[in-house]
Amino acid sequence: MIDSRDRWYLSDDHGTGHRAGASILARRVRFPAEGRKHKKGAPVTHSPLPARRDPPPSIDTTRANAARIWNYWLGGKDNYPVDRLVGSQISAAMPEIVDAARAERGFLVRTVRHLVTDTGIYQFLDIGTGLPTANNTHEVAQASAPQCRIVYVNNDPLILAHARALLTSTPEGATDYVDADPRDPDKILPQAARALDFTQPIALMLLGTVEHVLDNNEAYALANRLMDALPSGSYLALCSLATEVRSEAINKVVHQWNKSVTPTIKARSRQELIRFFDRLELLEPGVVSASQWRPEAAEREAPVEVCKFSGVGRKL
């Protein structure tokens, strides 16, 4: 059994990647400075919410859902019997899939900290965000620089139902949630401009996003269209399912997933993932296992290679 705090923090260290009425929730939320105290470096907290009982009518509980399966693998409560059934089948075929989910969140944490503290990036466009867990993008960013501004994007009804957990901010910064298909930049970009200044550098976060765009040309065009809208000095952080680790098992998991889960997925080779950075300056160590992208000192003892590969690139 978990308490109300655990509804948003599924574990102490890890969560799943890249997350009511959308017309009410999908807006910028600011808290007046006099209404909330915030100490630099302190975590942002969420108000506890009552336990969810019946799912909103728009949520299909007859077919497994990607965000809910990852939630189940990490011990969360925001899933249904069909998610647990399919999730158990997939993790039985490839138990290390849970390590991949944790590695992806670790990559998010390290990347956001690096971009804020080392490059002075204070704006983040997080497209394809998952269910709220520990170390969400705004929490990591604003712990280092309270003035950071974050926009989350997704159109999953369950994530929308939990959007209130994401719409928190330091008094100095801001968060926003855009209800839009992650593949629809023409809808995303104008709404993201409510909270982000597109004349200043922005970090585009595509974590677990392009793997749901099955056509390579469409996936590259999506990333390029989004980066084209950002000014010089902006960054792309990408993490996606790769075929570099246990490729045969990955291909079987992808086949099994696509028969039972929505949205469907595609695993790509490392070289295919590198192409997302063709027009960018790819940061060291390049496109590597998410667990091996600039690990912290405590993580440097032979981090396990996982099936999620990641990279960060800078727009010149």
Structure write-up:
By secondary structure, the chain is an alpha/beta fold. The model is unreliable at 1-53 (pLDDT under 50). Strands 2, 3, 4, 5, 6, 8, 9 and 10 form an eight-stranded mixed sheet that branches. A two-stranded parallel sheet has the order 1-7. It has eleven helices and ten strands. The chain has one domain (4-42, 61-314): Rossmann fold.
**Straight-line N-to-C gap:** 49 Å
List the helices and strands in order: HEHHHEHEHHEHEHEHEHEEE
Radius of gyration: 18 Å
In the CATH hierarchy, the third-tier topology is known as Rossmann fold
Total beta strand runs: 10
User: Which range does the strand content fall in?
Assistant: 5-15%
User: What's the story with the biggest beta sheet?
Assistant: 8 strands, mixed
CATH superfamily: Vaccinia Virus protein VP39
Query: What is the share of helical residues?
Result: 25-40%
How many distinct domains? 1
How many helical elements? 11
CATH architecture: 3-Layer(aba) Sandwich
Q: Please state the structural category.
A: alpha/beta
Ranges where pLDDT stays below 50 over 5 or more residues in a row are 1-53
CATH class assignment? Alpha Beta
